Amino acid sequence: MSMIPNDIPEPKKGLISRPESTLPTPVLSPSNSIGPSPAFSTVLQSPAVSEFELEQEQNPFDKIDDGWRIPECWGHRGASASFPENTKASFVEACKAGADGIETDIHITADNQLVLFHDPELHRTTDGQGLIHKLPWKGVLEHVRTTKAPHQPIPKFTEVLEILLKPENINVKLNIDCKVENDPAKLFGLIKDVVESYNGWETKLAPRLILGIWHPKFIAPACSILPYLPRYAISMSLSQTRKYFFENCHGFSIMYEVLASSDGAKFRKECQSKGKWICAWTVNEKEEMRQCGRWGIRSVISDKPDVWRRIRKEIESDRAKALKPTLQSYILPFLQTKNYWFQYQRLANEETEYLEREGGTFDIPIPVVSLGIAKPSDSM
């Protein structure tokens, strides 16, 4: 989830195991790129911002009772422990592994295409070079392939939506991590155009999409352009989350180690009392998955949805036994430096420095926005 280079329908009550998907992992052509991608520069106009009539001020999660429920699992960039991150193969594999959702990252190319990729530049995970926003899809990015096998192309936003629209994936959600390098109005305008181009988007897509935002400058544009999508603030800092996002977002996607702290416990109670959802990232260890189950939060984001599925089956079979703390539960956190305050605070400081360098200061005027979710039909 970190940006440093290195729906929502009501949850159904009861614990139900999802059947194995028969969806095959796609076979994609090898790269025909013969070298680093050339750089291009294009000046684009931001699409118009549309107005929507909101429903009465209401938190869409107020109807959820306070009772414990098993968390969902959202595949981090798909099933990125098994396949190259943010690729069609990774998304399909996450669905086959029983993920309740897919978490992915979005950027805009120089020719106004939406692509799913984590970093602003290509070199860490692909055979390409350069910044995505300076490169066109046509003729350049379409030929880039991942360096990790099986070598995959960069997917367009439409491709993940088509995976979600397959009958076997009709309940899978999509958490869209909106990278700070993007212009909010242009990004949300393009997302709106793509989503609303599908027949039946009001019922088939909109209820399953979530906007993940890192910077407060995304709040007002998200509310005005995509008011029918809930907003999740993504953060490593609870103080920032409380100051800039708590009153204007429906949920929070927070680094696991922060949620596991004493302040994290207070934050979890605050969210429960206010009807806010919490998602923890990136949770790959079994004991941490069980801890998320003990917390009863909304969801876990994991590179390993197949591992979570096994944990979930244990919980469904015998919740008390599966979630009973062991000696390892108490000792393990002290054996890993990532759980110490100075470690995750350092990462949070670095993240804030990066976000403000790319997106500007957090201390901007934030207008009062509605937490009501507009009906998709209001946009027609």
UniProtKB/TrEMBL annotation:
Region of interest: Disordered: 1-38
Gene3D superfamilies associated with the record: Phosphatidylinositol (PI) phosphodiesterase
Bias kind Polar residues: ranges: 19-38
InterPro entries listed in its UniProt record: GP_PDE_dom (IPR030395), PLC-like_Pdiesterase_TIM-brl (IPR017946)
SUPFAM superfamilies (UniProt xref): PLC-like phosphodiesterases (SSF51695)
Any single Pfam family the record assigns to this protein: GDPD
Domain GP-PDE: 71-312
Protein's name in the database: GP-PDE domain-containing protein
